[in-house]
Amino acid sequence: MTIRIGILGYGNLGKGVECAVKHNPDMELAAVFTRRDPAGVKILTPGVKVLPVEAAVGMKDQIDVMILCGGSATDLPVQTPGFARHFNVVDSFDTHANIPQHFEAVDAAAGESGHVGIISVGWDPGMFSLNRLLAGAVLPEGRDYTFWGKGVSQGHSDAIRRIPGVKDARQYTVPVDSALASVRAGENPELTTRQKHTRDCYVVAEEGADLKRIEEEIVNMPNYFADYDTTVHFISEEELQRDHSGIPHGGFVIRSGHTGWDSEHSHVIEYSLKLDSNPEFTASVIVAYARAAYRMAAEGQKGCKTVFDVAPAYLSPMDGAELRKHLL
Ligand SMILES: NC(=O)C1=CN([C@@H]2O[C@H](COP(=O)(O)OP(=O)(O)OC[C@H]3O[C@@H](n4cnc5c(N)ncnc54)[C@H](OP(=O)(O)O)[C@@H]3O)[C@@H](O)[C@H]2O)C=CC1
Ligand SMILES: N[C@@H](C[C@H]1CC(C(=O)O)=NO1)C(=O)O
Q1: Which atom of ligand 1 is nearest the CA belonging to 12?
Q2: Is 50 annotated for ligand binding?
C-alpha cells in the first residue's frame, strides 16, 4: 500500500520532506499546499501540483498523511489543530514551553475527527527527547545534558523572520566551551540555560526598518532568546547568501549515572548528531513518523501522540518478522 503524503507549507522543511518522500519507496507525494501564490512556488517533483492551502480539505480523500511544515512560532499552533480535523498529521512543533497546550489542541481536534496527529517530531524535540527518556529510565540515579551546535536553529531563525521589518535571518546556536568541558570532564555541573549556549543572529532588515526595535524584539523574545546571551548582526542580503546559506546543525545528549549498592559504578550514555542539513534530516525523521501515523490510524487509533507514544516498529518500512531479524 503506498502512503500518499501532502506537504503543507513549502519552506526549508517542506523542501526537505519533498526530498525525503523520494527516498521512501512506500510513499508518494500527492500535493504541496502553500499560503503564497502557487505560481511562484517551484517544486522539484515532476507531475505534482502546488495548490493554495484552501484546496487542501477538498483533497482529503487523496492524502493519507498531511505533513505540516510551517513555523512553530506562529504557523503550527493554528495549522496543526486546524488540519487535524481533516487529516492524519505530523508536525515538528518545537516551542518547548508550549508543547503541552499544543498537544491538548491537537488531541481535541484529532480525537473528535478520528485522526492521528503526531506532534513535535524531529531531532529536538524528537530523537533527543527519546534519548533523554531512555537514558533517564535506564540510569535513574544520574544527570543529563543537552548541547546543540554550533549550528543553525530553524525554529529560532523562523521566529526572527516573523518580526515585522525582517526580510531574512539565520540564528546560530553556540555551546559555551567551559560548560561543555565541565560536562565532559564528568563534573556534573548545575548549569542554567544561559550558561550552556549563546545565540548569534544574522539579520537582513527591510529598507528603512527600525533596527533598534528589531534587535530588542529578538533579545527579549520569550521561549526563544530571553533566557540567552544573544548577539544580533545586521547584514546585507548578499552577505547572508554568501556567508550563511547553509543550514548545518547537530548536538548531543549525554547522561552520566551510577549503579551498585554504594553507587560505586559510573556509566555514561551519549547520543550525538552531526547534520549537514538540519531541514533534510528533520524531514527524514518526520517522514518515518508519517509512516507511523498512517499505520496507527489504520489500526483505529486516534488523537494526539508524541514520539514517546510511537512504538519504534511503526517507523520502519520492514514488517514485524523481517524487523526481528535486525535485533542485533
Ligand atoms: N523538532 C525539530 O527537531 C525541528 C523543528 N523545526 C521546525 O520547523 C519549522 C519550519 O522551519 P523552516 O522550514 O526552516 O521555516 P521556513 O521559514 O523556511 O518556512 C516556514 C513557512 O514559511 C513559508 N515560507 C517559506 N519560504 C517563504 C518565503 N520565501 N516567503 C514567504 N513565506 C515563506 C512557508 O509557508 P507557505 O508555503 O504556506 O508560505 C513555510 O511553510 C521551524 O519553525 C521549527 O520550529 C526545524 C528543525 C528541527
Ligand atoms: N528545533 C531545533 C532543533 C534543535 C536545535 C536547537 C537550537 O539550536 O536551539 N534546539 O533544538 C531547530 O529548529 O533547528
Answers
A1: 13
A2: no
Report whether 249 belongs to an annotated binding site.
Answer: yes
What CATH class has 3-124+279-327?
alpha beta
pLDDT at 186: 82
As given in the structure block, the three cell numbers for residue 177 are 566551551
Q: Which atom of ligand 1 is nearest to the CA of 127?
A: 3
Residue range(s) occupied by CATH 3.40.50.720 in the chain: 3-124+279-327
In this prediction the pTM is 0.97
Q: What is the pLDDT of residues 36-61, one digit of tens each?
A: 999 999 999 999 999 999 999 999 99
Q: Which CATH number fits domain 151-247: 3.40.50.1970, 3.30.750.24, 3.30.360.10, 3.40.630.10?
A: 3.30.360.10
Q: Please, are residues 17 and 7 in contact by the beta-carbon 8 Å criterion?
A: yes
Report H helices in the chain: 12-22, 76-84, 99-113, 127-138, 154-161, 177-184, 193-196, 211-219, 237-243, 278-298, 320-324
pLDDT tens per residue across span 85-120? 999 999 999 999 999 999 999 999 999 999 999 999
Task: Tell me what pLDDT residue 328 has.
Answer: 86
Q: Is 10 annotated as ligand-binding?
A: yes
User: How confident is the model at residue 252, as a pLDDT?
Assistant: 96
The alpha carbon of 286 and the centre of ligand 1 are apart by a number of angstroms equal to 14
Whole-number mean pLDDT of the chain? 97
Q: Is 78 helix (H, G, I), strand (E, B) or coil?
A: helix
Q: What spacing in Å lies between the alpha carbon of 151 and ligand 2's midpoint? A: 9
* Amino acid (1-letter code) at residue 315: L
Would you tell me the crossing angle of helices 278-298 and 12-22 to the nearest 10 degrees? 60
Residue ranges in the chain modelled with pLDDT below 70: none
Closest residue (by CA) to atom 6 of ligand 2? 153
